[in-house]
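Troubleshooting: if your tokenizer reports a length mismatch, compare your output against this known-good record of 118 residues.
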Amino acid sequence: MPAAYAIAHLRESRPHPDVIEYLERIQATLDPFQGRFIVHCGRLEVIEGTWPGDAVLIGFPDAERARGWYTSPAYQEILPLRTNHIEADVILVEGVGPDYDPVQRADALRAADPGYTP
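Known-good structure output:
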């Protein structure tokens, strides 16, 4: 079963007591859903485009648990501690399995385009 991830692009992050409280409480909201930080505002090197701010990546065993965490009452209770002080984009995305082959994706895209000619 593929993993799933919560990805956040945090912009204009500024220290605030609410953000500190959010950080102190977030892991307890992740634990019931087996969520774990993979990246948490680590050193970021932009190699294409622009990326103002920080990145956060949280891994889950599957999309159901990722969605369950985000919509859980425990997380929704602390969410304003972050959103009131940090502008961000957050997505949930499913990962690919160990047998993923990008050639199959290319084939599917080619098949979906009736006007494609090599």
